[in-house]
């Protein structure tokens, strides 16, 4: 395998893995802050228990998120030196601001929160979890500003073949960021809500602290339904926006080879990149025009026409991203997202009728539903990044030009294998510890010294 | 002219961020390297870990910030440096991941074997970066085969020259000493005595090796030696001696401050020796990266300057508050990790 492909696989793997842990922590920090606020306002012990219980899950995931996040920041320079030199003028700024403005607050006050339970005033302690929650969301904004420049470059002018920043303000008010940011953040809240629902369902179904976990179930369902509805709604707007700014990505995501007017929506298809056609294509007439423009008559430009356009604009080359990957990542995200919201709507109806806590089948379904947001987070980002290929910065630099040119492929192979092995180990351990923690009902063996009995937040 | 002022300013600010990083994360490394030697039994080990518990995450962000600021202000430097040190940085990343999760995972099971393994993870995860930072920075000082596209053309083993390994060892010894001093501040009784003993041993070794390095460095890095850098190195050696004397006298707080000054002069020596270069090519000086050809444009530099000038004092303020709140002696009644 060549250097570019190895570097791409490594960046993709480490990013997807990093984003396994991050959305949960973004969303869960907010939900924990809400629970702790309820405790602060009411002084009722059940909210304190829930805060500590979900806090334990948060901390396991936060640790892995921090460790894997460092890899992301270093990899730009390590594997993508060409890219870093090309866009450093612009791309580095939001990363630096993220660290100064958000990550510092987050990391300092998570320590304050962990160690502050009995040592600082309740008010300051509550403030510290809110600072963590707000700064994780701020953090996401700056990272997305950076990513948005790769998707839709703004605020620059070309000087000696390189983009130079002309307006920081334009960079951070990139319309792409405005639309991607809420999509990602509500997706993160959905992820955390899904976990909260699943954990509550597990405890309710085994009859453990049912009264308390019905509260977190309700919080999870309400937060999950609102956040997921907004994620889907914004996702739709994002699709319409991308038809304008990155038509090739959307055409690939829809597996639309030839331009159509009005365009039909493929519900299920097997795209074939060799023949530029779809095998087994089930379509809804006119629907894609509606999805793209909110009317049933608009022309949607297909992959072949876009390819010809880009050749005319950028010179000879293949400008078509992997269509099958884009199409199915998009389908998985939309279909599974819709499925999750239907399940949760059903569950909240049962909850309202007081039938949820006795219905073990539905509770079991709710536990499995927690997987859906994870799949959607990953497929969404794969669509966003793979759908941009062959560009690393859309229209400005190709991925093949972004790599660290003199890096030895065997070094990248070494680190790739190393990262994969470590990450597999990490995921097994994190899952094992999280499940064990949930199963034991949050008994904190942290406070045990070897085999002595530790303290239990439930007694 | 305005651009040059900002380029020099950022050369200094990058140094400031690395001073913050080495001073703060430095004692984290040291404490965890000392962990297997000082902590006998689970209770003592947990006190050792607890000593840095509320701070280590905030400390690590200094590295994230230094990396981000380097990317933003000197993208050319960031790109060449990070791709040059590909495998060392990979090892550092693996070590840091291991360390981060070891903190969170070790206490989750009460099984002694499980805990011993993660303690080893904390140890190894600190030892590797503590050694490699010195190796990396001395390599930049020595000069590396860098081509006209500013790409490194050598391999991993070219980085392991005697002078650079010696610098790595001096850095490692200093971090261990620094951690020992920090533990003296945080502990009482038996652990305090053991920390003091460890600090005296490693402090003495640091001074011996640092003096050797200064003399050896005169030859190994001869092309880079200048009066300011040499002056800083001599002050550093004197500060280390002062720090060690304070440790012997049982004044770890003051010794800790001496170490801050020591890190300041150590980093200053490096930056003074490099100026205005940031990556030195051993093939031809035409391929050197300097603060003038590796930086962002003026607009970008001004933006980052404004953000930093506003936020850095605030960060120092709340991190300072965090230290003030949690810096007391650990009695070991309630432990988190």
What is the tally of beta strands of chain A?
6
DSSP summary, beta strand count of chain B: 2
Radius of gyration of chain B: 20 Å
The greatest interface here is: A-B, 83 and 79 residues
Q: Total number of helical segments of chain B?
A: 11
Tell me the helix content of chain B. Answer: over 70%
Secondary-structure content class of chain A: mainly alpha
What is the total domain count of chain B?
A: 1
How widely separated are the two ends of chain A?
Answer: 57 Å
List the secondary-structure elements of chain B in sequence, H or E.
HHHHHHHHHHEEH
Q: Averaged pLDDT of chain A, please?
A: 88
Number of structural units classed as domains of chain A: 2
Quaternary form:
heterodimer
Distance N to C terminus of chain B = 52 Å
Instruction: Give the uncertain stretches of chain B in residue-range form.
Output: none
- What is the 3D shape of chain B? globular
H and E string of chain A? HHHHEEHHHHEEHHHHHEEHH
Strand order of the largest sheet of chain B: 1-2
Strand coverage percent of chain B: under 5%
* Estimated radius of gyration of chain A: 23 Å
């Amino acid at each position: 395998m060549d250097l570019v492909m190895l570097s791409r696989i490594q960046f993709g793997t480490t990013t997807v893995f990093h984003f396994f842990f991050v959305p949960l922590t973004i969303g869960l920090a907010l939900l924990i802050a809400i629970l702790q606020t309820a405790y602060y306002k009411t002084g009722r012990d059940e909210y304190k228990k829930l805060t500590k219980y979900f806090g334990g899950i948060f901390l396991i995931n936060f640790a892995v998120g921090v460790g894997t996040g460092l890899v992301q920041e270093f990899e730009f320079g390590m594997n993508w030196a060409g890219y870093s030199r090309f866009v450093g003028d612009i791309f580095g700024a939001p990363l630096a601001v993220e660290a100064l403005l958000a990550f510092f607050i987050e990391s300092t006050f998570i320590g304050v929160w962990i160690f502050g339970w009995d040592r600082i005033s309740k008010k300051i302690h509550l403030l510290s979890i809110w600072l963590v929650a707000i700064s994780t969301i701020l953090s996401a904004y700056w990272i997305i500003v950076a990513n948005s420049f790769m998707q839709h470059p703004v605020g620059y002018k070309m000087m000696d073949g390189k983009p130079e920043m002309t307006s920081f303000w334009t960079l951070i008010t990139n319309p792409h960021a405005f639309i991607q940011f809420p999509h990602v953040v509500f997706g993160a809240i959905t992820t955390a809500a899904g976990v909260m629902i699943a954990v509550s369902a597990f405890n309710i179904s085994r009859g453990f602290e049912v009264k308390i976990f019905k509260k977190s179930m309700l919080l999870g369902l309400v937060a999950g339904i609102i956040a997921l509805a907004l994620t889907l709604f914004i996702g739709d707007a994002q699709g319409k926006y991308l038809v304008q700014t990155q038509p090739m990505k959307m055409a690939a995501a829809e597996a639309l080879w030839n331009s159509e007017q009005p365009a039909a929506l493929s519900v299920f298809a097997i795209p074939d990149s060799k023949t530029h056609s779809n095998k087994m294509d089930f379509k809804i007439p006119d629907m894609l025009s509606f999805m793209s423009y909110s009317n049933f008559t608009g022309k949607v430009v297909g992959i072949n026409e876009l390819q010809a356009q880009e050749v005319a604009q950028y010179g000879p080359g293949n400008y078509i991203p992997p269509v099958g990957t884009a199409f199915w990542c998009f389908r998985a995200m939309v279909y599974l997202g819709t499925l999750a919201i239907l399940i949760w709507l059903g569950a909240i109806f049962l909850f309202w009728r007081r039938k949820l806590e006795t219905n073990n089948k539905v509770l079991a379904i709710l536990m499995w539903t927690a997987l859906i947001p994870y799949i959607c987070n990953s497929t969404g980002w794969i669509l966003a990044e793979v759908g941009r290929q062959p560009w690393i910065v859309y229209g400005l630099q190709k991925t093949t030009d972004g790599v660290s040119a003199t890096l030895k492929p065997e070094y990248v192979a070494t680190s790739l294998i190393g990262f994969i092995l470590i990450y597999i180990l990490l995921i097994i351990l994190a899952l094992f510890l999280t499940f064990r923690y949930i199963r034991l009902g949050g008994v904190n063996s942290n406070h045990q010294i070897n085999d002595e009995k530790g303290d239990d937040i439930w007694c | 002219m305005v651009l040059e002022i900002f380029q020099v300013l950022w050369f200094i600010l990058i140094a400031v961020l690395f001073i913050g990083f080495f001073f703060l994360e430095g004692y984290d490394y040291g404490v965890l390297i000392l962990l297997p030697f000082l902590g006998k039994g689970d209770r003592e080990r947990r006190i050792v870990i607890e000593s840095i518990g509320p701070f280590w995450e905030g400390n690590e962000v200094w590295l994230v910030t230094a990396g981000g600021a380097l990317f933003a202000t000197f993208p050319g430097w960031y790109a060449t440096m990070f791709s040059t040190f590909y495998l060392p940085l990979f090892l550092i990343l693996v070590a840091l991941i291991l360390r981060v999760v070891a903190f969170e995972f070790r206490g989750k099971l009460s099984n002694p074997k499980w805990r011993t393994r993660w303690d080893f993870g904390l140890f190894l995860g600190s030892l590797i970066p503590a050694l490699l930072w010195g190796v990396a920075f001395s390599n930049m000082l020595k000069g590396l085969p860098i081509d006209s596209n500013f790409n490194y053309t050598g391999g991993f083993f070219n980085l392991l020259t005697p002078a650079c390994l010696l610098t790595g060892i001096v850095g490692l010894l200093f971090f261990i000493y620094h951690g020992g001093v920090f533990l003296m501040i945080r502990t009482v009784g038996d652990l305090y005595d053991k920390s003091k003993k460890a600090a005296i041993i490693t402090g003495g070794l640091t001074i011996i090796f640092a003096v050797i390095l200064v003399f050896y460095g005169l030859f190994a890095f001869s092309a880079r030696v200048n009066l300011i850098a040499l002056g800083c190195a001599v002050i550093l050696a004197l500060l280390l001696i002062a720090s060690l004397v304070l440790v012997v006298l049982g004044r770890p707080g003051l010794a800790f401050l001496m170490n801050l000054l020591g890190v300041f002069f150590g980093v200053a020596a490096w930056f003074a020796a490099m100026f205005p270069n940031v990556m030195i090519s051993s093939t031809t000086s035409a391929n050197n990266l300097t603060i003038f050809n590796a930086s962002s444009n003026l607009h970008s530099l001004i933006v980052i300057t404004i953000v930093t000038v506003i936020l850095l004092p605030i960060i120092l303020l709340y991190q300072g508050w965090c230290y003030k709140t949690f810096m007391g002696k650990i009695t070991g009644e309630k432990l988190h990790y």
